[in-house]
Design goal:
Structural class of chain A: alpha/beta
Oligomer: homodimer
Largest interface: A-B, 38 and 37 residues
């Protein structure tokens, strides 16, 4: 299923790069390299060329950027600004099912205005990671007719920046959000009705992430359901959603088509890659992941929903 | 998939018959005919011969028993006792995702001792609906080597009657519970680890119901995932879990084998039938349901998890 010889178009990822301080059930971890762009580019680069536009402070380790580069990520668009890197401090519940934000320090991210290197403007696949929707819109003005524009967002923007977010929704093909955010955005608990409402706001495709319950795709072809890979040892869910979105885009770029079959396979692949993310603290599992490991687990995931016909 | 010409063994269902007073978001409904045996026998009888052992009071409408009989349910084992029928009063949250028990009146159910008519003792498929585990054990002493024994239970017995429940678990093949109950029974949040723990207590098969997120089967062959049918108009989830269990047993009886393929199909069929249950108040949708309608929706459910190979 995961071919290694396809031509591929670059995936441009705009998002955050961060230090995360994590209080996990199994361990406390400080200065963990994180951020939506970090997770998404690592997973997209498993399948395709990934380019990142993000900002870090002068305290961000060169080594971390080199790790991305060593995984094939084009890091030319990572801006190094004077000041401290964005920091998120969070505490997870014992069962990892919920988390509390203890502190958010925007630091250099407060003044971030994404500027695309000239070579990035023609990127055919664009993933607008979870940042202020006004910045997501700014990025859209700088790109030239991408094949696919996907965006993520979060509760904070849905409640606080709804008009700007609605503006963005008109201009993207695919929205990737979790089910709580879907319900909040649509003001509707029923997932099917909520999906119809959000699709009527612009995006023709909606991907709903449901954590341990899998993910759903709503598009003109109907509904597709991808299960989550059942993990025995969950360590850290941070970045799993970003990893999912990155893998989705990377796989679609590798496939080279956006037909229904590719979209559905892309959800299965994305669910698979995201499951690896949860097995380590931060990106530690992702940075050693290879396509062969993904292919093996994808087979397990396929078996999970297989029944005789 | 749903064959109409197979031979079939009877499914014996032991459980409750009840009046339910329901406070639903869309309507308040009193004296709704309910109970685990009612829902399970209606759904099992779609596929196979179903027999019920339960107790009702002298206030229970004859009409309701006749409705079961008209759907092909063998009602000989329904005992009519002096007194009032078991009553459950519940209120659902606006989004139907949670419910509160406002009142439980055991009435004639308080003295219920299930007695199997002689003709029922050789029933090859036995579903022990959610009643006191001591009564479930009593039923087991009265049956002759069934092919398959499945049981349901609930949080109330898991916390209050654990030793008796553990005794029961040693004697059944298949446990059918929801995910919260699984976590409570195993004292473990992770579903995969919880499933392994519960299976080590006796049942070789575990079916975990997850409401709108579908259902999972854990057995010697691994894990199978059946999605829930995405409903646009959810009316009343009461009895959906019992409907699921009844359909599972009815379908397995019709198939006549318990191999992996039949088990997986049975979960898909059970998820389909349960989705109909939620579309009406009480059993109103189930009593008019036929196999052709189930077969059509099953095709939709199959499409939901289909992707190219």
């Amino acid at each position: 299923m995961i071919h290694s010889t396809r031509s591929q178009d670059p995936v441009l990822i705009v998002g955050s790069m961060a230090f995360d301080d994590l209080e996990l059930p199994s361990v406390d971890a400080k200065d963990v390299i994180g951020g939506s762009a970090t997770y998404a580019s690592l997973s997209a680069s498993l399948f395709s060329e990934a380019r990142v536009v993000a900002v870090v402070g002068d305290d961000f380790p060169k080594q971390a950027v080199e790790t991305l580069a060593s995984r094939g990520v084009d890091v030319e668009g990572i801006e190094r600004a004077r000041g401290k890197t964005f920091r998120w401090v969070g505490r997870y519940a014992k069962n990892l099912a919920s988390r509390t934000t203890l502190d958010t320090q925007l630091n250099v991210f407060a003044d971030f205005r994404p500027k695309l290197p000239a070579a990035y403007r023609a990127s055919p696949y664009l993933l607008l990671g979870n940042i202020h929707p006004a910045l997501q819109l700014e990025v859209l003005t700088q790109v030239e007719r991408p094949k696919l524009v996907a965006a993520d967002t979060m509760n904070f923007w849905i409640s606080g920046e709804r008009p700007t977010l609605l503006e963005l929704l008109k201009k993207i093909d695919t929205l990737v959000i979790n089910d709580e955010e879907l319900r909040q955005l649509a003001d509707e608990h029923n997932v099917k009705r909520a999906a119809a409402r959000v699709r009527s706001l612009g995006p023709r495709r909606l991907v709903v992430k449901r954590g341990e319950y899998g993910a759903m795709l709503f598009d003109d072809h109907g509904i597709f359901f991808a299960p989550a890979y059942p993990l025995e040892d969950e360590v850290d869910p941070t970045g799993a959603g970003d990893t999912f979105a990155g893998a989705l885009m990377g796989y679609l770029s590798r496939e080279g088509t956006l037909d229904e079959s590719s979209m559905r396979k892309a959800l299965m692949v994305a669910a698979t890659v995201a499951s690896f993310c949860v097995e380590g603290v931060g990106t530690e599992r992702l940075v050693s992941l290879d396509r062969a490991q993904v292919a093996r687990r994808l087979e397990d995931l396929r078996t999970l929903v297989h029944f005789g016909h």
